[in-house]
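User: Hi! I'm working on a homework problem where we have to compare a predicted structure to a textbook description. Could you give me the structure for the chain below?
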Amino acid sequence: MRLSILSNVNLDMLSGLLKKENEVFQTDGYGEWITYALKKDERLAAFAPECLFLLLDGNALLEGCQDMGSVKTVLDRSEQYIEKLAENYSASYLVVSTIDVRPEHIGAGDGTGIRRLLGYASDRAGGAAEKYSPF
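Assistant: Happy to help. Predicted structure tokens:
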């Protein structure tokens, strides 16, 4: 299978394992997923992966967010980037990971911050479920 993995964290080890039985497009580095979304990359388009995986780490994605307003901004912007990624590489099946967020980076220890974030993310994901294949 021809595939590509885009991410906001380093997944070189995973790519190396997948290369044993698949043709894997090697990206220019982790965190470049936004670059691939904003501008169609001719090398990736020519490679024509059957499946394009987008694996996002929530803590890396939300790094620097200080309040729910900044979290909302980052998640809204990320959704726009994902839509653009799907548009730019429409010949590939796009698989988008769920966003894993460890609670210690969200807010107070009572879990209030994580519940608010998950509620917001759940509301945002409602319409996206029909567009993408989350795993």
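For your comparison, note the following. Residues 79 and 125 are 9 Å apart (CA to CA). The longest helix spans residues 68-88. Good luck with the assignment!
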